[in-house]
């Protein structure tokens, strides 16, 4: 079986590789097998317009339906992969390809949601070959870059210049949008917002969940929204769970909302069924 993974750089497993290897390799093997068996799938969580609550886009969230383990969330395997650049790269490439496949399918079928937001790991965002690969994918599926938004965390943007900055500029030229995910949790200076072509700020759930509890946290949310608006960035709030939060965010000028209050992440099948039912209801 080891031969099967050889092409991906997997080392043949032998008992003398020691305890660390014996703990680590099976997980890597399992993830690589999951990639080739297509056990990893994209779930979709709609983002809605804050005022009208109509769906404007959907975020793809990775799920692993692992035989014998049920449906695993990214927390169960992404942190492991993050420490192995080649593995994370394989996952990110897989996710990009799947997303393009879904998008192309939806467009063909006339599905009204035609834009997808993806989470890309920081390491891949700063990788030199990433843009060329994305370009090729878009071409292969006949998609325009403007149909994609890449969500990345602030950490990516800390480096002055460098590959991440070049990639950002290339993405801007391709029409691909960039969103700063978990905004406000990165302890970073805000100056990068001027240096990088960013399109969207995504307020972290930890801020959203505190709305209504203390005045200070609410003020922080307002400040982030104000910052985004001053810089002409779209502001999205993640993890919206209560109508109180939704109303506060909307009246403070937040553009887009996402959270369990509106929709849970769902399989493509559920997503298309829900959209179909909605179109039927409004017809
Ligand atoms: P994220 O991008 O910040 O995604 C938001 C997470 O919050 C998702 O968890 C989502 O299911 C969850 N969520 C959404 N609305 C609510 C809500 O109202 N309340 C609460 N409590 N949670 C909510 P999930 O799917 O487990 O993903 C966790 C993280 O894993 C993501 O955080 C993202 O950083 C990462 N991730 C997900 N998919 C991918 C992927 O395809 N590639 C990479 N590299 N990372 C991914
Ligand atoms: Mg995200
Ligand atoms: Mg987020
Ligand atoms: Mg988050």
From TrEMBL:
The organism's place on the tree of life at top rank: Bacteria
Chain ranges of the EAL domain: 24-279
Protein name: EAL domain-containing protein
Taxonomic source organism: Rhodoferax aquaticus
Residue numbers of the full-length protein present here: 603 to 885 of 885
């Amino acid at each position: 079986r080891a031969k099967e993974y050889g092409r991906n750089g997997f080392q043949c497993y032998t008992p003398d590789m020691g305890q660390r290897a014996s703990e680590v390799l099976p997980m890597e093997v399992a993830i690589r097998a999951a990639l080739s068996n297509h056990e990893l799938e994209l779930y979709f969580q709609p983002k809605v317009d804050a005022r009208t609550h109509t769906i404007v886009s959907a975020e793809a969230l990775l799920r692993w339906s692992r035989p014998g383990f049920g449906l695993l969330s990214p927390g169960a395997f992404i942190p492991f992969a993050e420490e192995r650049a080649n593995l994370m790269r394989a996952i990110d490439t897989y996710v990009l390809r799947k997303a393009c496949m879904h998008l192309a399918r939806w467009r063909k079928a006339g599905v009204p949601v035609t834009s997808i937001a993806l989470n890309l790991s920081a390491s891949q965002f700063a990788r030199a070959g990433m843009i060329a690969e994305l370009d090729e994918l878009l071409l292969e599926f006949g998609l325009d870059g403007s149909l994609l938004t890449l969500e990345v965390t602030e950490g990516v943007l800390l480096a002055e210049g460098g590959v991440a900055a070049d990639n950002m500029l290339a993405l801007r030229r391709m029409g691909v949008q960039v969103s700063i995910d978990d905004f406000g949790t990165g302890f970073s200076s805000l100056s990068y917002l001027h240096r990088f072509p960013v399109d969207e700020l995504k307020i972290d759930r930890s801020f959203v969940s505190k709305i209504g509890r203390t005045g200070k946290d609410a003020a922080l949310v307002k400040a982030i929204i104000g910052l985004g608006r001053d810089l002409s960035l779209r502001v999205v709030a993640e993890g919206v769970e209560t109508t109180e939060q939704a109303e506060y965010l909307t009246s403070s000028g937040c553009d887009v909302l996402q959270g369990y209050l509106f929709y849970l992440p769902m399989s493509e099948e559920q997503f298309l069924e829900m959209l179909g039912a909605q179109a039927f209801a409004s017809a």
